[in-house]
């Protein structure tokens, strides 16, 4: 019950922030969509960082490290630090400048004028929506998965049909998803982009601090950092995988297991270098076989897992973070900046913020491999570690609030973005810029946001058992495949309309092909472990270069308009 | 900007630390070597960002956008979309 109270308190604070930001609302559509370009450096950093980090930041990073080890940090976090920083600096500032100069509110407005094409907007709109909607689903499904287990037993007579029997009495996903949607809808509806930015700043601070707090308590329970470093699962010389320690909950301390507990065995022992002991602390791929209990038959069933990361996967993963360059909701956040100088803090501090959130989670995940059953679902690792090592409802409640903060700080921007895109790129664009009053535009945007929230909620309930983290990677891959479009439009004058359209089509077809091959959302690699986003990126980049070179260049006025420093 | 690109690609290469792949040793405070390497890598990314905003700041783009504010004050801004005006 304490957990639920903390969650409700957190949601209440968000509503109050929404109400507070609505007092600053100037009543214009420009203020609703891009906060009248008034957001300063700190709010910009917090809102951009909060938007780019989803539930993956806390829950997913810990789970991925539990599966693959500390290489998770290099695979997803440190490369994002480099690529995101470069994109904010090289792409974000230019887009902000062009947006402010020419009055753009959406990416599509920019692309339409840059490529002198109405059609490119109609081509991009469904693709962007197609990629953002699953991203929204990730948040709503993820919130449901987080809240139900931590509130288990709170309402035993009210919620009698839990997802699994152990969660009986917990708040069901349909209710938690509904409440989350309503809270986000409320503060976006009344506060617009300023409301989202202020709420994001609060949420970002919450999830950053909660990760550090969870880390502190877990390290304390394990007896300090040195001791915690000895906990991950170990490979014995005979190829068995063992856990050397267990946590004695009653005594509240780590206890050595003698003999160590066997939990699995290495399948590719002959390829493992002699002397290797802790697969989670290195990156050499180790194929391991474990057993887990089937929830229906109660029988132990074997399953395999690759610990470590193949080098080719590690290298090609660098294409995934390119997605931030094409996120429509991030474009909108960039446009809220008061001036170009507001970007400075984001460029410098973004890699550090990633580090603060990810390093503790990755360490917790690798330690968890030595304490938790190997068959536990990866998204449940962080809360299971807290429950095992700390067991404090207050802390569980705070951490849950942190996870919700990470989820909601992305949801709000995406809802707002879809409302903005629909209003400006479809309704206003088709009717003509003077067809609607400013108040009417606000009304259209808000109505569409309500519709999209309702549709997303219903979709989330229909796909509530989807693997949210694999789905997230597919969304990022789609946006990453479109990155050559935005980069070429800003840095290569010769980029033509035909080249842009070819690039979008190549990205779409290649992404759809690999998505189909993956079974619509599963983990999928090409050949020896190549990430599909890398192939989609090169096809998209190749198309834009080739077709642009053989088609007529853009008109001189367009080049002058988008390349001011050299014209 | 040339220096930014050079350092960016050097960092991109350093990120693929194949020389650390099999290392599983610990340094002080229970930090695995491979992870510590990438923590320093993150600090280096932030350092490159700091260098970029100090030494390679795109003044021309800042001025280009600010020119629009002055134009707007004189009622000369040309907006692409009516909602922005």
Notes on the protein architecture:
The complex is a heterodimer of chains A (567) and B (85). Chain A is built from 20 helices and five strands. By secondary structure, chain A is an alpha+beta fold. Chain A has two domains: 2-223 and 311-562, Up-down Bundle (Sodium/glucose cotransporter), CATH 1.20.1730; 231-307, no CATH class. Chain A has a five-stranded antiparallel sheet, with no helix packed on it. The longest helix of chain A has 50 residues, at 173-222. Chain A is globular and about 75 Å long. The N and C termini of chain A lie far apart (64 Å). The mean pLDDT of chain A is 89. By secondary structure, chain B is mainly alpha-helical. Chain B has a domain at 31-58. Helices cover 61% and strands 5% of the residues of chain B. Chain B contains three helices and two strands. Chain B has helices at residues 2-15, 33-55, 59-73, and strands at residues 26-27, 31-32. A two-stranded antiparallel sheet of chain B has the order 1-2. In chain B, α1 packs antiparallel against α2 (33-55). The radius of gyration of chain B is 22 Å and the shape is elongated. Chain B starts with a helix and ends in a 12-residue tail after the last helix. The model of chain B is unreliable at 73-85 (pLDDT under 50). The chains are: A alpha+beta (567), B mainly alpha (85). Chains A and B meet through α2, α5, α9, α10 and α12 of A and α1, β2, α2 and α3 of B.
């Amino acid at each position: 019950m304490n957990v639920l109270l903390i969650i409700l308190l957190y949601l209440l604070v968000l509503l109050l922030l929404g109400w507070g930001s609505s007092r600053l609302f100037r009543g214009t559509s420009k203020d609703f969509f891009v906060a009248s370009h008034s957001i300063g450096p700190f709010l910009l950093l917090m809102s951009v960082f909060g938007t780019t980090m989803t539930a993956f930041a806390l829950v997913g990073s810990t789970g991925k490290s539990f599966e693959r080890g500390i290489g998770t940090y290099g695979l997803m976090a440190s490369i994002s630090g480099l690529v995101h920083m470069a994109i904010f600096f090289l792409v974000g500032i230019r887009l902000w400048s062009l947006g402010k100069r020419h009055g753009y509110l959406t990416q599509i407005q920019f692309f339409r004028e840059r490529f002198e094409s109405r059609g490119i907007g109609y081509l991009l709109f469904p693709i962007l929506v197609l990629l953002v909607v699953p991203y929204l689903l990730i948040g709503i499904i993820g919130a449901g998965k987080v809240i139900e287990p931590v509130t288990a037993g709170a309402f035993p007579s009210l919620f009698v049909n839990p997802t699994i029997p152990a969660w009986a009495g917990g708040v069901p996903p349909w209710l938690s998803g509904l409440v989350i949607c309503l809270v986000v809808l409320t503060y976006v509806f009344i506060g617009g982009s300023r409301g989202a930015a202020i709420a994001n700043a609060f949420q970002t601070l919450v999830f950053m601090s909660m990760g550090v707090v969870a880390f502190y308590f877990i390290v304390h329970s394990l007896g300090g950092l040195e001791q915690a470093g000895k906990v991950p699962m170990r490979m014995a010389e005979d190829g068995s995988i063992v856990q050397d320690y267990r946590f004695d909950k009653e005594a509240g301390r780590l206890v050595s297991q003698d003999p160590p507990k066997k939990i699995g065995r290495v399948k590719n022992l002959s390829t493992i270098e002699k002397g290797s002991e802790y697969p989670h602390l290195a990156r050499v791929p180790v194929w391991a076989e474990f057993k887990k209990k089937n929830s229906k038959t109660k029988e132990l069933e074997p399953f395999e897992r690759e610990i470590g990361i193949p080098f080719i996967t590690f290298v090609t993963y660098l294409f995934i973070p390119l997605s931030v360059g094409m996120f429509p909701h991030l474009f909108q956040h960039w446009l809220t900046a008061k001036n170009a100088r507001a970007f400075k803090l984001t460029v410098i501090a973004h890699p550090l913020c990633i580090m603060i959130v990810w390093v503790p989670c990755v360490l917790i995940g690798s330690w968890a491999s030595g304490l938790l059953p190997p068959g536990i679902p990866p998204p449940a690792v962080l809360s299971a570690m807290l429950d095992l090592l700390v067991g404090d409802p207050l802390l569980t409640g705070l951490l849950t609030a942190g996870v919700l903060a990470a989820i909601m700080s992305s949801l709000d921007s995406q809802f707002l973005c879809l409302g903005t895109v629909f209003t400006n790129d479809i309704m206003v664009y088709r009717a003509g810029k003077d067809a609607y009053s400013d108040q009417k535009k606000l009304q259209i945007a808000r109505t569409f946001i309500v519709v999209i929230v309702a549709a997303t909620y219903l979709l989330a309930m229909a796909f509530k058992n989807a693997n949210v983290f694999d789905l997230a990677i597919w969304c990022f891959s789609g946006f990453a495949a479109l990155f050559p479009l935005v980069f070429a439009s800003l840095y290569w004058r010769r980029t033509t309309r035909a080249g842009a359209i070819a690039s979008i089509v190549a990205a779409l077809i290649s992404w759809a092909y690999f998505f189909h091959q993956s079974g619509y959302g599963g983990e999928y690699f090409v050949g020896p472990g190549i990430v599909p986003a890398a192939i989609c990126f090169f096809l998209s980049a190749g198309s834009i270069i080739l077709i642009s070179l053989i088609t007529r260049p853009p008109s001189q006025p367009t080049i002058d308009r988008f390349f001011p420093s050299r014209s | 900007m040339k220096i930014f690109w050079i350092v960016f690609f050097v960092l991109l290469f350093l990120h693929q630390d194949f020389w650390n792949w099999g290392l599983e040793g610990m340094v002080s405070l229970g930090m695995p070597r491979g992870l510590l390497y990438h923590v320093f890598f993150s600090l280096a990314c932030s350092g490159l960002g700091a260098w970029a905003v100090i030494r390679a700041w795109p003044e021309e783009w800042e001025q280009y956008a600010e020119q629009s504010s002055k134009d707007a004050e004189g009622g000369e801004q040309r907006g692409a979309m009516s909602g922005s005006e």
